[in-house]
Amino acid sequence: MAQHRTQPFSADSSAATASMSYLARTPAEGFVRQPSALAPTQEHIWRRYLRAHQPAALYHETLTICCPQALDAASLERCFLEIIRRHGSWRTNFDIREGSPIQLVQPAATSVPIAVHDLSALPADARESEFFGLVNRSAKLPFELRDGSLFRAALFKMGEDDFRVSVVTHQLILDGISAYQILPFELAALYAAFSEGRPSSLPALPTQYSDFSEWHRRFVSGSEQQRQLKYWKSQLKAPLPTHRWPHTYSPPGTESFRGTTSPFVVPTELSSRLGEFARAERASLFMILLGSFASLVRSYSEQNDLMIATLSPCGRKHSTTLGLLGYFLNPVALRFDFSGGPTFEEFLRQVRRVLADAISHDDVPIENLAEELGINTGRDPIIKVAISLQPRTPSLDAQWEVTTMDARDTGSPWDLYLAFIEGSSGLAGRVQYNPDVLKESEVAEMLRDLWRVMEAAISNPNVRVAEALRR
Predict the structure, then answer these.
(1) Which residues lie closer than 8 Å to 228 by C-beta, 6 or more apart?
(2) End-to-end alpha-carbon separation of the chain, Å?
(3) Among 87, 141, 358, 469, which is most exposed with the fewest C-beta within 10 angstroms?
(4) In angstroms, what CA-CA distances link 46 with 50, 65, 216, 363, 452?
(5) Same structural domain for residues 206 and 302?
């Protein structure tokens, strides 16, 4: 779900940004729309979700909004009803017509079931355990794509000044900007207004997700797709690199989408130094994280040809889509060359170039790309390992805070995925991995080694990448 924050919206001169000025605008919120095609990147999620079968929760996203004030279910329900009215994507269902997937925007709901759990009477440890258990169970329940809601909400009372709103959604209607910025901002603003008897002050939306999906499908079916495919055919020439993990644990011979998610925290001093180093190098924080992670994977695999992916918010290149709930992401492959034994500072220049090129060619859906290259999409052989930096949560009324680490076993589309989160107290995040490929102890050791690589790079940017882990 997550995405990095390099400069994905800086391509104002690109064909994508220019042509988005012609993006259609649905005039009224609460609209009902005739069946239409999915956005190409959204269709990628839909097809893989149907193919996976198990686990059912592969593309379920869980976020918890914590609030240090009493919340009541009635006001909360009114907030969600308004969000559903505003955002057609949150009342959309998915079906198949003539062999192709379609989306159907439904009328605005008149009620939203919100489960209420009062755990305040339990001892502190039991309270947290029960909370995570209930969230995990909710995260594993399947969604009915054809005729059901694609999100569910629950209100938890943990104490007199500790309330939590848990939201589980299907990834078809949510991305990182939706989860970390749009939803918590709108929920906090609406709750503040409705609990005080005031009307919503949120501005009307200029367009809807279904408008974007139609535009994006037209955009990637014309000359622009051919231009971008030319770049990717050059970047992804065969043979593609394969990851060699430093163990004898053999991945399964068939598709496996099992996954485990664990939180992590970057050591406080290291987190602070990473930011300072990024500023000194005139690089984004994500470039430093990406460069460090790629250096680690190179040390593990001892390969000079390496592929790592990130999630590009390709659909948010225009101001009219920035405030929409929905899925706007596209995985992009980043191919690095370590031949010649570059220093970390030299490699960072390559990271900057490769990342900028990939972001400027990020509209071609990964499955379209695989078809053009004649690759069996299976478990995404183009992408096995990915990294991202989540968008920062905006300042919210009443000090509401957002987390997305409350569900542990909901599947994994890749072997390994690191999602960093930049908060007020430093860097944290979650690691999602396939236990059929990596063991828990190996992942924990991998994170420790990553901190070591970061420390080596910060202390001496002229350290050779191949030697960073040895220091």
Answers:
(1) 220, 361, 363, 364
(2) 34
(3) 141
(4) 6, 27, 16, 17, 38
(5) no
The overall average pLDDT reported for the chain is 85
Supply the CATH number for residue 66's domain: 3.30.559.10
Residue 226 is assigned to a structural domain of this protein: no
pLDDT per position as a tens digit, 229-285? 999 999 998 888 877 776 655 555 556 677 888 889 999 999 999 999 999 999 999
Per residue in 455-471, pLDDT (tens digit) is: 999 999 999 998 888 75
The answer to the question of residue 223 being in a domain is no
Any domain includes 58: yes
Largest CA distance in the chain: 66
Cβ(391)–Cβ(419) below 8 Å: no
Mean of the pLDDT values across residues 373-401? 74
Q: Which of 384, 387, 405 is nearest to 450 (CA)?
A: 387
Three-state SS for 101? strand
For residues 437 and 396, give the distance between their C-alpha atoms in angstroms, rounded to a whole number. 39
Which is nearest to 386 in space by CA: 334, 435, 436? Answer: 334
Q: Identify the CA nearest to 3 among candidates 213, 181, 136.
A: 181
Within a domain: residue 156?
yes
Helix (H) / strand (E) containing 115? strand 114-118
Q: Examine the domain organization and report whether 267 and 177 are in the same domain.
A: no
Q: In the chain, how many domains are there?
A: 2
Residues 240 and 181 in one domain: no
β-pairing, 260-265 with 330-337?
A: unpaired
Cα–Cα dist 175/330, whole Å: 10
- Residue 361's domain comprises 236-396+407-467
- Determine the residue type at 36: S
Query: Do 125 and 243 share a structural domain?
Result: no
Distance CA 467, CA 461 (A): 12
Q: Both 125 and 162 in a single domain?
A: yes
